[in-house]
């Protein structure tokens, strides 16, 4: 059975290779019937409910700035070719390629599960990060409103959180974000990978345009929400020349701080990214991969803590120096305000006895 897929409009991956845990593998081959003018059928998105038992997950990675997180969705319709979450689709027997962006899972009970976990007498509040794996505001959120349900619970409990997205849909929830920001309970991170609309459409086919992301930073900032701008991933030879322009644009929009991550190509992402380069940027594919390897000790990726986010070597050092200089120049080198854990309260439920002293 062939896994070859014609280039599909609005999709990032160029193939749908079998997940690494499957007993049977599919290999693409040319059977002579792929006519150039053949009509390519649209790839429809399917969304399946996932029966989660808990909603808050925990990690002990020193490379990320949070210990607790919530991911309302598995898979992401944005289709970003570089997405580090792609390999996780293999755990459910699906491909990190086209399956990742077209066969999605959502957690319909996310709000109820979160309320139960926050209400436990054993729970101790810690900042919860929303969207550490896949985007909480991908297109299906308009209809499913899983992220919205999570935010409503966090607001009722006065629980601090951070949230990351590359979608303008976050503006829908300003009625929650604005008052929580005024209480020191929320901050947002918006990813702006490029200002080039054509590159964004190729690299992140169903995500918001670069200008809409910059506009979203402005809307959030105007509402009092502290915004961290993410220039991620930095891809040497492809978008790194935009670093200073991106930071200037997000600073003008009101971002408080900025951070970056160098391109990561673990597991299946390497092949998917190389296929995409060969398809969309054949003139620079070899150079980009050469520069990427120069940031990874001659390999496509290094998984060691302390290296995987920023890389190493002369190219990585130059990126680090440029980013630090641009942060200072545009006033993005300040720290984000700390979030207030002291406001957390379990709200009374219907039928609960009132506290005699009102505490």
Provide a descriptive summary of the structure in words.
This protein has helices at residues 98-102, 110-119, 141-144, 146-156, 174-182, 197-203, 210-222, 243-252, 269-280, 285-294, 314-329; strands spanning 46-49, 57-58, 68-70, 73-74, 103-106, 128-130, 161-165, 186-191, 227-234, 257-262. With 359 residues, it is an alpha/beta fold. It has a domain at 47-261: Alpha-Beta Barrel (TIM Barrel). α2 packs parallel to α4 and α8 (243-252) runs parallel beside α11 (314-329). It is globular. Residues 1-5 have low confidence and may be disordered.
CATH class descriptor name of one domain: Alpha Beta
CATH 4th-level superfamily of one domain: Aldolase class I
| Proportion of residues in helical segments | 25-40%
User: Rounded to an integer, what's the Rg over CA atoms?
Assistant: 21 Å
Q: What's the main sheet like?
A: 7 strands, mixed
Shape: globular
SS class: alpha/beta
Query: What is the helix tally?
Result: 11
Instruction: Report the average pLDDT across residues.
Output: 90
- By CATH, the architecture of one domain is named Alpha-Beta Barrel
Under CATH, the topology of one domain can be stated as TIM Barrel
| Lateral strand order in the biggest sheet | 2-3-6-7-8-9-10
Strand count: 10
Q: State the end-to-end CA separation.
A: 66 Å
The share of residues in extended strands comes to: 5-15%
Oligomer: single chain
Sequence of secondary-structure elements: EEEEHEHEHHEHEHHEHEHHH
Low-confidence stretches: 1-5
């Amino acid at each position: 059975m062939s896994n070859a897929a014609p280039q599909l409009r609005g999709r990032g991956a160029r193939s749908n290779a079998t997940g690494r845990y499957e007993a049977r593998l599919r290999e693409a081959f040319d059977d002579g019937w792929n006519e150039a003018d053949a009509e390519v059928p649209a790839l429809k998105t399917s969304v399946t409910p996932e029966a989660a038992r808990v909603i808050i997950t925990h990690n002990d990675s020193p490379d990320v700035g949070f210990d607790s997180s919530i991911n309302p969705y598995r898979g992401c319709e944005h289709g970003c070719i570089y997405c580090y979450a792609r390999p996780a689709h293999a755990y459910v027997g699906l491909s990190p390629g086209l399956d990742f962006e077209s066969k999605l899972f959502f957690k319909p009970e996310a709000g109820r599960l979160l309320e139960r976990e926050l209400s436990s007498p054993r729970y101790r509040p810690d900042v919860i990060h929303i969207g550490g794996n896949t985007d909480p505001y991908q297109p299906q959120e308009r209809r499913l409103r899983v992220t919205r349900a999570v935010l409503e619970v966090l607001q009722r409990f006065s629980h601090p959180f951070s949230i990351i997205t590359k979608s303008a849909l976050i503006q829908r929830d300003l009625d929650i974000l604005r008052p929580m920001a005024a209480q020191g309970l929320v901050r947002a991170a918006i990813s702006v990978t490029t200002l080039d609309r054509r590159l964004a459409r190729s690299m992140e086919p169903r995500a918001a345009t670069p200008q809409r992301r910059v506009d979203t930073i402005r809307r959030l900032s105007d509402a009092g929400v502290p915004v961290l701008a993410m220039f991620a991933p930095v891809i040497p030879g492809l978008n790194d020349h935009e670093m200073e322009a991106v930071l200037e644009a997000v600073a003008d929009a009101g971002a408080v701080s900025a951070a970056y991550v160098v391109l990561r190509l673990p597991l299946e992402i390497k092949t998917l990214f190389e296929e995409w380069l060969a398809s969309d940027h054949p003139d620079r594919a070899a150079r980009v991969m050469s520069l990427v390897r120069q940031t990874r000790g001659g390999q496509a990726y290094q998984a060691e803590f302390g290296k995987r986010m920023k890389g190493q070597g002369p190219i990585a050092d130059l990126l680090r120096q440029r980013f630090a200089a641009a942060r200072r120049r545009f006033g993005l080198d300040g720290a984000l305000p700390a979030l207030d854990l002291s406001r957390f309260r379990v709200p009374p439920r219907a039928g609960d006895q009132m506290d005699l002293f009102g505490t």
